[in-house]
Design a protein that fits this description.
Layout: H1 3-16, E1 29-35, E2 40-49, E3 52-61, H2 64-77, H3 82-96, H4 118-146
Helix pairs in contact: 1-2, 2-4, 3-4
Bound molecules: zinc ion (ZN).
The site of zinc ion (ZN) has 8 residues, from helix 2.
Length: about 150
Amino acid sequence: MPQFDLFQEIILDHFKKPRNRGELTPATRTLEATLPSCGDHLFLDLLIEGDRLVDVKFRGSGCSISMASASMMTAAVKGKPLGEALKLIESFRKMMRGEPLPAGLGELQALQGVAKLPVRVKCATLAWSTLEQAIQEEKTEREDEQHGH
Ligand code: ZN
């Protein structure tokens, strides 16, 4: 099977059979994200314990790229330490900028073709930016707590 078809297959599979889709209860943090230009709309539920993203689920609707990317993102970061999740977000961004592929992307490489479609890059990145925002909020709150606010 040519690589392009394999990549299409993986994206389609995640779109048709999304992983970690639904509402997570309990969740320690829920973020909503929208991309009005495309009509993508998703919620990300996170369960963070200590420095680990114990569980993650997403809900919402949108184009096939946004939904497939959200599904692939949850599968890739679930159970990972927050630091590793942040590294993966950075690697994903590099791939979306068309930079040489960082190591460790695994199945996510299926989305590399999106880098050539600027309009779609926003769709593919939506769930990832939301996760990044959630982790940053978590860190900021903890720092505030440590400083006695
Ligand atoms: Zn979209």
